[in-house]
Protein backbone atom coordinates (compact mmCIF):
# COMPACT_ATOMS: atom_id res chain seq x y z
CA UNK A 1 0.00 0.00 0.00
CA UNK A 2 1.38 3.39 -1.00
CA UNK A 3 2.08 5.98 1.70
CA UNK A 4 1.23 9.64 1.49
CA UNK A 5 4.07 12.06 2.10
CA UNK A 6 3.15 12.60 5.76
CA UNK A 7 3.56 8.89 6.48
CA UNK A 8 7.10 8.64 5.12
CA UNK A 9 10.05 7.64 7.26
CA UNK A 10 13.59 8.79 6.65
CA UNK A 11 14.20 5.32 5.18
CA UNK A 12 12.14 6.38 2.15
CA UNK A 13 14.43 7.60 -0.63
CA UNK A 14 12.34 10.67 -1.42
CA UNK A 15 12.29 12.07 2.11
CA UNK A 16 15.91 11.11 2.79
CA UNK A 17 17.16 12.90 -0.32
CA UNK A 18 15.14 16.05 0.43
CA UNK A 19 16.35 16.25 4.02
CA UNK A 20 19.98 15.70 3.04
CA UNK A 21 19.93 18.69 0.67
CA UNK A 22 20.36 20.74 3.86
CA UNK A 23 24.14 21.21 3.93
CA UNK A 24 24.37 21.59 7.70
CA UNK A 25 22.32 18.45 8.39
CA UNK A 26 24.35 16.52 5.82
CA UNK A 27 27.60 17.72 7.39
CA UNK A 28 26.52 16.76 10.92
CA UNK A 29 25.27 13.33 9.83
CA UNK A 30 28.59 12.62 8.10
CA UNK A 31 30.49 13.77 11.18
CA UNK A 32 28.42 11.42 13.32
CA UNK A 33 29.00 8.44 11.04
CA UNK A 34 32.71 9.01 10.45
CA UNK A 35 33.58 10.40 13.90
CA UNK A 36 35.80 13.07 12.36
CA UNK A 37 35.30 16.85 12.12
CA UNK A 38 34.08 18.09 8.74
CA UNK A 39 34.43 21.84 8.32
CA UNK A 40 31.83 22.21 5.60
CA UNK A 41 30.17 20.43 2.70
CA UNK A 42 29.30 21.93 -0.64
CA UNK A 43 25.64 21.89 -1.65
CA UNK A 44 24.67 18.18 -1.65
CA UNK A 45 23.43 16.75 -4.93
CA UNK A 46 20.54 14.27 -4.80
CA UNK A 47 19.55 11.65 -7.37
CA UNK A 48 22.71 12.43 -9.33
CA UNK A 49 23.21 10.30 -12.44
CA UNK A 50 26.72 9.41 -13.54
CA UNK A 51 26.89 8.43 -17.19
CA UNK A 52 29.65 5.87 -17.62
CA UNK A 53 32.22 6.14 -20.36
CA UNK A 54 31.43 2.76 -21.83
CA UNK A 55 28.14 1.53 -23.23
CA UNK A 56 25.69 0.49 -20.57
CA UNK A 57 23.56 1.98 -17.85
CA UNK A 58 24.68 4.86 -15.71
CA UNK A 59 24.36 4.93 -11.96
CA UNK A 60 22.01 7.17 -9.95
CA UNK A 61 23.23 8.21 -6.51
CA UNK A 62 20.81 9.13 -3.70
CA UNK A 63 23.08 11.76 -2.12
CA UNK A 64 26.46 12.91 -3.47
CA UNK A 65 28.54 15.37 -1.43
CA UNK A 66 31.91 17.09 -1.84
CA UNK A 67 33.58 18.71 1.18
CA UNK A 68 35.79 20.96 -0.95
CA UNK A 69 38.90 19.53 0.72
CA UNK A 70 39.56 16.45 -1.35
CA UNK A 71 36.88 14.03 -0.15
CA UNK A 72 33.58 12.94 -1.71
CA UNK A 73 30.74 11.08 -0.03
CA UNK A 74 27.97 8.97 -1.55
CA UNK A 75 25.15 8.15 0.89
CA UNK A 76 22.51 5.60 -0.08
CA UNK A 77 19.37 4.42 1.69
CA UNK A 78 18.94 0.66 1.27
CA UNK A 79 15.75 -1.14 2.30
CA UNK A 80 16.01 -4.31 0.20
CA UNK A 81 18.24 -7.39 0.33
CA UNK A 82 17.52 -8.40 -3.25
CA UNK A 83 20.83 -7.34 -4.75
CA UNK A 84 24.45 -8.06 -3.95
CA UNK A 85 25.26 -5.05 -1.77
CA UNK A 86 29.06 -5.46 -1.54
CA UNK A 87 29.34 -5.56 -5.33
CA UNK A 88 26.93 -2.66 -5.58
CA UNK A 89 29.23 -0.54 -3.41
CA UNK A 90 32.13 -1.53 -5.66
CA UNK A 91 30.07 -0.41 -8.67
CA UNK A 92 29.24 2.90 -6.99
CA UNK A 93 32.87 3.51 -6.04
CA UNK A 94 34.13 2.70 -9.53
CA UNK A 95 31.53 4.96 -11.12
CA UNK A 96 32.48 7.83 -8.81
CA UNK A 97 36.16 7.37 -9.70
CA UNK A 98 35.38 7.55 -13.41
CA UNK A 99 33.36 10.69 -12.80
CA UNK A 100 36.12 12.34 -10.75
CA UNK A 101 38.81 12.22 -13.41
CA UNK A 102 38.40 13.33 -16.99
CA UNK A 103 39.80 11.34 -19.88
CA UNK A 104 43.57 11.55 -19.92
CA UNK A 105 43.86 12.99 -16.40
CA UNK A 106 46.27 11.33 -13.99
CA UNK A 107 44.75 8.88 -11.50
CA UNK A 108 46.74 10.62 -8.76
CA UNK A 109 43.96 13.24 -8.82
CA UNK A 110 41.39 10.74 -7.53
CA UNK A 111 39.81 12.01 -4.33
CA UNK A 112 39.22 10.10 -1.13
CA UNK A 113 35.77 8.54 -1.49
CA UNK A 114 33.28 7.13 0.99
CA UNK A 115 30.34 4.99 -0.10
CA UNK A 116 27.88 4.81 2.80
CA UNK A 117 24.82 2.55 2.78
CA UNK A 118 22.16 2.97 5.48
CA UNK A 119 20.39 -0.40 5.66
CA UNK A 120 17.09 -1.22 7.37
CA UNK A 121 18.38 -4.76 7.90
CA UNK A 122 21.63 -6.34 9.02
CA UNK A 123 23.64 -6.80 5.78
CA UNK A 124 26.18 -9.18 7.36
CA UNK A 125 24.12 -10.69 10.19
CA UNK A 126 26.75 -9.90 12.80
CA UNK A 127 24.59 -7.68 14.99
CA UNK A 128 26.66 -4.55 14.41
CA UNK A 129 25.28 -1.06 13.84
CA UNK A 130 28.23 -0.17 11.61
CA UNK A 131 30.54 -2.13 9.30
CA UNK A 132 33.53 -0.29 7.80
CA UNK A 133 35.62 -1.78 4.99
CA UNK A 134 38.87 -0.69 3.40
CA UNK A 135 41.49 -2.61 1.44
CA UNK A 136 44.15 -4.20 3.65
CA UNK A 137 46.98 -6.69 3.22
CA UNK A 138 45.85 -10.21 4.13
CA UNK A 139 49.30 -11.11 5.42
CA UNK A 140 49.54 -8.00 7.61
CA UNK A 141 46.17 -6.50 8.54
CA UNK A 142 47.85 -3.41 9.99
CA UNK A 143 49.00 -2.54 6.46
CA UNK A 144 46.41 -0.51 4.54
CA UNK A 145 46.53 -0.29 0.75
CA UNK A 146 45.95 3.46 0.98
CA UNK A 147 43.69 3.71 -2.08
CA UNK A 148 41.34 5.95 -0.01
CA UNK A 149 38.24 4.02 -1.07
CA UNK A 150 36.09 3.26 1.98
CA UNK A 151 32.73 1.49 2.20
CA UNK A 152 30.49 1.79 5.25
CA UNK A 153 27.29 -0.14 5.96
CA UNK A 154 25.00 1.17 8.71
CA UNK A 155 22.41 -1.18 10.22
CA UNK A 156 19.29 0.35 11.77
CA UNK A 157 18.60 -2.92 13.59
CA UNK A 158 21.96 -3.56 15.23
CA UNK A 159 22.01 -5.35 18.59
CA UNK A 160 25.62 -4.94 19.75
CA UNK A 161 26.88 -2.11 21.94
CA UNK A 162 29.31 -0.96 19.24
CA UNK A 163 28.26 2.69 18.79
CA UNK A 164 27.26 5.47 21.17
CA UNK A 165 23.67 6.14 22.26
CA UNK A 166 23.21 9.07 19.89
CA UNK A 167 24.08 6.90 16.89
CA UNK A 168 21.71 4.16 18.06
CA UNK A 169 18.97 6.76 18.43
CA UNK A 170 19.68 8.23 14.99
CA UNK A 171 19.51 4.80 13.34
CA UNK A 172 16.26 3.98 15.15
CA UNK A 173 14.81 7.32 13.98
CA UNK A 174 15.43 6.32 10.36
CA UNK A 175 12.60 3.77 10.65
CA UNK A 176 10.44 5.72 13.11
CA UNK A 177 10.46 9.28 11.78
CA UNK A 178 7.56 10.48 13.90
CA UNK A 179 6.77 13.49 16.08
CA UNK A 180 6.52 11.14 19.06
CA UNK A 181 10.02 9.73 18.54
CA UNK A 182 11.55 13.17 17.91
CA UNK A 183 9.93 14.64 21.02
CA UNK A 184 11.47 11.91 23.19
CA UNK A 185 14.87 11.95 21.48
CA UNK A 186 17.86 13.15 23.48
CA UNK A 187 19.91 14.01 20.41
CA UNK A 188 19.89 17.65 19.18
CA UNK A 189 20.77 16.28 15.75
CA UNK A 190 17.53 14.31 15.57
CA UNK A 191 15.53 17.41 16.53
CA UNK A 192 17.29 19.38 13.78
CA UNK A 193 16.60 16.65 11.23
CA UNK A 194 12.96 16.36 12.30
CA UNK A 195 12.43 20.08 11.80
CA UNK A 196 13.57 19.65 8.19
CA UNK A 197 11.41 16.52 7.85
CA UNK A 198 8.32 18.52 8.83
CA UNK A 199 9.24 21.32 6.42
CA UNK A 200 9.36 18.79 3.57
CA UNK A 201 6.14 17.01 4.57
CA UNK A 202 4.19 20.26 4.91
CA UNK A 203 5.38 21.78 1.63
CA UNK A 204 2.65 21.50 -1.08
CA UNK A 205 5.26 21.53 -3.84
CA UNK A 206 7.02 18.56 -2.24
CA UNK A 207 3.71 16.69 -2.05
CA UNK A 208 3.06 17.24 -5.77
CA UNK A 209 6.60 16.12 -6.60
CA UNK A 210 6.18 13.00 -4.46
CA UNK A 211 2.82 12.12 -6.04
CA UNK A 212 4.32 12.54 -9.52
CA UNK A 213 7.18 10.23 -8.56
CA UNK A 214 4.74 7.62 -7.24
CA UNK A 215 2.82 7.66 -10.51
CA UNK A 216 6.05 7.12 -12.44
CA UNK A 217 6.95 4.26 -10.07
CA UNK A 218 3.56 2.59 -10.68
CA UNK A 219 4.28 2.61 -14.39
CA UNK A 220 7.73 1.14 -13.81
CA UNK A 221 6.35 -1.57 -11.52
CA UNK A 222 4.53 -3.19 -14.42
CA UNK A 223 7.79 -3.38 -16.35
CA UNK A 224 9.54 -4.65 -13.23
CA UNK A 225 7.01 -7.45 -12.80
CA UNK A 226 7.91 -8.77 -16.23
CA UNK A 227 11.61 -8.64 -15.40
CA UNK A 228 10.94 -10.28 -12.01
CA UNK A 229 9.13 -13.18 -13.64
CA UNK A 230 12.07 -13.69 -16.02
CA UNK A 231 14.51 -13.65 -13.07
CA UNK A 232 12.43 -16.21 -11.16
CA UNK A 233 12.34 -18.48 -14.20
CA UNK A 234 16.13 -18.22 -14.55
CA UNK A 235 16.52 -19.21 -10.87
CA UNK A 236 14.20 -22.19 -11.24
CA UNK A 237 15.90 -23.31 -14.46
CA UNK A 238 19.32 -23.30 -12.79
CA UNK A 239 17.86 -25.12 -9.76
CA UNK A 240 16.44 -27.84 -12.01
CA UNK A 241 19.88 -28.11 -13.60
CA UNK A 242 21.17 -29.16 -10.18
CA UNK A 243 22.75 -25.95 -8.97
CA UNK A 244 22.64 -24.92 -5.28
CA UNK A 245 21.09 -21.65 -4.11
CA UNK A 246 24.43 -19.96 -3.34
CA UNK A 247 25.81 -20.92 -6.75
CA UNK A 248 22.70 -19.53 -8.43
CA UNK A 249 23.03 -16.32 -6.43
CA UNK A 250 26.65 -15.94 -7.53
CA UNK A 251 25.83 -16.61 -11.17
CA UNK A 252 22.96 -14.10 -11.28
CA UNK A 253 24.41 -11.48 -8.93
CA UNK A 254 21.64 -11.90 -6.36
CA UNK A 255 21.40 -12.29 -2.60
CA UNK A 256 21.17 -15.94 -1.50
CA UNK A 257 18.12 -15.06 0.65
CA UNK A 258 16.25 -13.88 -2.43
CA UNK A 259 17.13 -17.04 -4.35
CA UNK A 260 16.07 -19.22 -1.41
CA UNK A 261 12.73 -17.39 -1.20
CA UNK A 262 12.04 -17.97 -4.90
CA UNK A 263 12.93 -21.66 -4.55
CA UNK A 264 10.76 -21.98 -1.44
CA UNK A 265 7.80 -20.43 -3.27
CA UNK A 266 8.45 -22.78 -6.18
CA UNK A 267 8.56 -25.83 -3.87
CA UNK A 268 5.22 -24.81 -2.34
CA UNK A 269 3.41 -24.52 -5.66
CA UNK A 270 0.53 -26.99 -6.00
CA UNK A 271 1.52 -29.91 -8.19
Question: What does it look like?
Answer:
The protein has helices at residues 13-19, 23-34, 85-100, 165-175, 179-184, 188-201, 204-240, 245-252, 256-267, and strands at 45-50, 59-66, 71-78, 112-119, 130-133, 149-155. With 271 residues, the protein is of the alpha/beta class. The protein has 2 domains: 5-202; 209-267, no CATH class. The chain has a 6-stranded mixed beta sheet with strand order 1-2-3-4-6-5, with helices on both faces. A hairpin with an 8-residue loop joins β1 (45-50) and β2 (59-66). α7 (204-240) crosses α9 (256-267). It starts with 12 loop residues before the first helix and ends with a helix.
Key attributes of the depicted protein:
six-stranded mixed β-sheet; single chain; alpha/beta; 15% strand; 271 residues; 2 domains
Order of adjacent strands in the largest pleated sheet: 1-2-3-4-6-5
Low-confidence stretches: none
Mean pLDDT over the full residue set = 86
What class, by secondary structure content?
alpha/beta
Helix content: 40-55%
Terminal Cα separation, in Å? Answer: 31 Å
Strand content: 15-25%
- Biggest sheet statistics: 6 strands, mixed
Instruction: Identify the overall geometry.
Output: globular
When the domains are counted, the total is 2
Summary?
It contains nine helices and six strands; from the N terminus they run ααβββαβββαααααα. The chain is of the alpha/beta class.
